[in-house]
Design a protein that fits this description.
single chain; 574 residues; eight-stranded mixed beta barrel; six-stranded antiparallel beta sheet; 21 strands; 20% strand; elongated
Length: 574
Amino acid sequence: MTSVDNPPKQSDAMRAERDRFVALAFCWADFMVEVDRNRKIVFAVGATDPVLGIGANHLVGKQFLDLVAPTDRALATQLLLIAERQGRIENVTVRFSSERGLTSPLNFAGYCLSDLGGHFFLAFRMSATTSSNRSRAAGRPLRDLESGLIEGDFFVEVATDRIESLHRSGHEARVSLLAVSKLDELRERLAADEQENLMRTIGATLRASSVGGDSASVIGEGKFGLVHEAQVDIDKLEGQIRDFTREVDPLGKGVTTEAATVVVDDMDISEEDLANSLMYMFNQFRESKDGSFSLTSLCGRMSELLAEARETVHNFRRIVADSDFDIAFQPIIDAISGDIHHYEGLCRFRGEMGASSPYKYITFAEETGLIWQFDLAMAAKAIDWLAAGSTRKDYSVAVNVSGLSVGTFSYVNELHKLLRKNMWTRGRVLFEITESSRMSDLESADRFIQTLRNEGYTVCLDDFGAGAASFQYLSALDVDVVKLDGSAVRNAQRARKGEAFLSALTKLCHSLKVETIAEMIDNKRGLEFVRKCGVQYVQGYLFGKPSKRIEDFSPLPQQQLFAASKRRSTARRT
């Protein structure tokens, strides 16, 4: 071992204390370094060569932070600052740069001892990567590029793993949500490199307080979450962020912060229910607008929120397992002839859940990762209904598929099993993809769609025209039908150039051999408008609200609206 620049007049007792610390550290660590106040290594011992490619004696005199991987340097900087204030660092991982490239993550623990000149005594142990195999297998970036924090889509998985790990080791687990207000305004006042430093520092500060230094996430714009132990002071964490942002802000304003914390140990809950409940909470936080989801008011009831989510998850699973819901039908009608092309099958829950809008529970299922199970149950329900009697042989029913389900392997696999058992459903079951904005991998989504189409099933893309991304989906996804978003159709009726816009949209679809459906056609004026624009099919309250009795649409209400159109169509053909 080698040492330079020791603190002056170090006593024999102090040296013995350090030697004892080294001996104890080697019960746990592969190597250890002592770092002075200037972040220079003054002592090194252990198996540094196989890890870093350099002997311990050659580490002495080097700047410690220069050895840390660039992506983890801000984290290491924050960790040392925290150690100066709080005395110790533990349960953190960092990577180093070596001649062989980046090392694997190393477990990292240590102390800052004021009695020894404020030096840091840091121990490192080889560790398997903390990244989730499932996250890596998904083929998507694991980290937010700006902050270095875990991307929100992966946080539930990571948080659940960390919480369970803490429980197994007998430690308290806590989850905190942090809202940083006016962060976007601050960024606008900074140069590009200053913005990068801002986000890296915020990310490092959050990571440094999280379990393993790797359990913090960016959940949304200015919204963050972390899993941490009980001794972490979230108030101090907020203060660090506020202080730093004031320092870098040209106006000296910085940001404001708001946090809420839940003690997860208070909940007697399975790992799966914990994951679903956390997903619900995080999505509520992510989707909230300013003022609609106060963390201050939430703080006292976050455990209650998770408990409510757990109970609703349990009830929803039971409903899915027992198929305890009904199908309501709404016809899709030829805009010229008035003939019914098919029916959309819509869920209607029973019992207490039936008193609320189905949208509430479908949204809940999407927020908790249960939507694929429901979508599968809905498809099975429609198939059972079609198979129930010979009088239904002429009916075709479209079932909804969430964009989230499209990207879920279990759903895709189980759906194909169901369809292979019921090959007679070809041409009679259609699939309507809703929440298409949640499809993160359009290439995989298109493979799913083409597999269905090749097996003889029609696929419709819902909510088309509701956003600019619709054209990206139409370009990337080869579908049979698009359903024009009802609000887009209504807006087109009011806008000066609305008819020209909708007409151009339908012509684009026709040129791609994609049929069009206009939804929310609730009055005669709307029907006449979409006819002029060239839309082929219509759906809406003009022809009756969704009904569990499909016979309510035979004969079709408002059939007289199609008589003149039929005559004109016949005249043109003759």
